[in-house]
Amino acid sequence: MAYRITDACIACGACAAECPMEAIAEGDGKFEIDPEKCVGCGACAGVCPVGAPEEA
Ligand code: SF4
Ligand code: SF4
To answer: What is the pLDDT of residues 24-50, one digit of tens each?
Structure first.
């Protein structure tokens, strides 16, 4: 199950640095997850200070 990043994202970039699949990139005002690359490991959710990544 892929994760998605909600509008709670403050664009700190912590999740992108942790993602083992390099599935996260900066988008328009927040970071975004490429569902084709995400393997659902949850590492992004573990480091996010505002709980923005959630299971889609
Ligand atoms: Fe990357 Fe894992 Fe988050 Fe998917 S769940 S975006 S693979 S860190
Ligand atoms: Fe956004 Fe959280 Fe990722 Fe920071 S760690 S860029 S707040 S989703």
So the answer is: 999 999 999 999 999 999 999 999 999
- Measure 50 CA to ligand 1 centroid, in angstroms: 16
- Give the number of whichever ligand sits closest to the CA of residue 14: 2
Q: How many CA atoms lie within 13 A of 27 on its CB side?
A: 13
Q: What pLDDT shows up at residue 1?
A: 87
Candidates 54, 53, 19; CA nearest to 39 is 19
What architecture (CATH level 2) is domain 3-50? 2-Layer Sandwich (3.30)
- Residue 21 tokens, joined: 């699949």
